[in-house]
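Shapes recur. One chain:

:::
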Amino acid sequence: AMSCTTAPEPVKKAPPLTSSKSSQRIYQEAQSRFDQGQDDAASAQLKQLLKQEPNSDLSDDALLLLGRIEFRKKQYAAAYSYFEGVFTSKINSPREVESRILAVQCLLALDKYDQADRLIRSSLERPMQPKEKSYLFEAQLPILLRKDSQLEAFEALAYMATNHPNTNSRDKYKEMAKNYIDTKLKSDELRS
């Protein structure tokens, strides 16, 4: 069982090595093939890149793109393992939060709500931009509603209503928060 005390200190990760020009070319080609829907070719190139330079500054990008390829094919477990590879790596990545958000999407697609919730909660303990935090709350909201965690759901809505990067989404979450107070929270107060 996980304790709810303080978050463990994040593990000090090594800085990535600078990738070679040839690896940069391979990555750009793979990205281009991905954009054109040539997933198998892109995947082969990305795996080659990871073999050549597993600890380079492109390794996180390659893992994320491999995950996106698998996600597009609805191979959510495979996609998850690529995304997880970024945030469990011993190499530091500026894309760690993004990989966690994508991993959560995979877990939700696999109906692994408890595991998704644990990953979201551990991710929220890390430093991140308000935009990234909004995306984590957005992924967590259906889980909280499903578990009937009303106060947490309201806190997530309130956060997204003020911090979501998309104006339409902020307005939608403001409205949802207002309705949530009017229906869920007020009716509970009357019952107690």
